[in-house]
């Protein structure tokens, strides 16, 4: 499956979230990660994030898709991490 | 169609981008907007953003989908703007 994750995390925890996500996904933009993951890895990511974040202060939105091909992307301005070249 | 827009904009232009996007879409999280738009509105949004941003410094990623139903969403932590209640 393919996931897009966007987060809004308090500064004291944001680096922990970033380095955790970097182990599983590609950094795409300031607070956006994307990547292909297995269902069990997806579960691991969700549990790992819940261990790090404060659920009353932080917010993470996960958009899961069955296939990478379902996700189109238009970039305006700087393409910080050109995912199409990575995949 | 349905769009998710995530942005990373230099501080001097970010409020302009936010208020522009607020005219067309729903604010979902720190730097994420979503919403149902017509194709012509989608074009208008892209052109409007290009008028505001500095293409060498700012970055906007647009994920377009044919239908809202293609987009699932899992929220961890605070659900800042519960889109399902809005739509």
Biggest sheet layout of chain A:
4 strands, antiparallel
End-to-end Cα distance of chain A: 14 Å
- What's the helix count of chain A? 3
What is the CATH fold-level name of chain A? Alpha-Beta Plaits
Oligomeric state of the chains in view: homodimer
Mean pLDDT metric of chain A = 92
Write down the secondary-structure element order of chain A.
EHEEHEEH
Coarse morphology of chain A? globular
Instruction: Look at the structure and give the CATH class of chain A.
Output: Alpha Beta
What is the number of E strands of chain A? 5
Largest interface: A-B, 36 and 36 residues
Radius of gyration of chain A: 13 Å
Percent helix of chain A: 25-40%
Strand content of chain A: 25-35%
Order of strands across the biggest sheet of chain A?
2-3-1-4
């Amino acid at each position: 499956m393919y996931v897009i994750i966007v987060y809004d995390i308090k500064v004291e925890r944001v680096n922990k979230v970033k380095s955790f996500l970097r182990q599983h996904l590609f950094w795409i933009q300031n607070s956006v990660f994307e990547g292909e993951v297995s269902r069990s890895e997806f579960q691991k990511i969700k549990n790992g994030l819940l261990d790090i974040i404060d659920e009353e202060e932080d917010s993470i939105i996960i958009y899961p898709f069955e296939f990478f091909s379902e996700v189109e992307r238009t970039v305006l301005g700087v393409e910080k991490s050109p995912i199409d070249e990575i995949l």
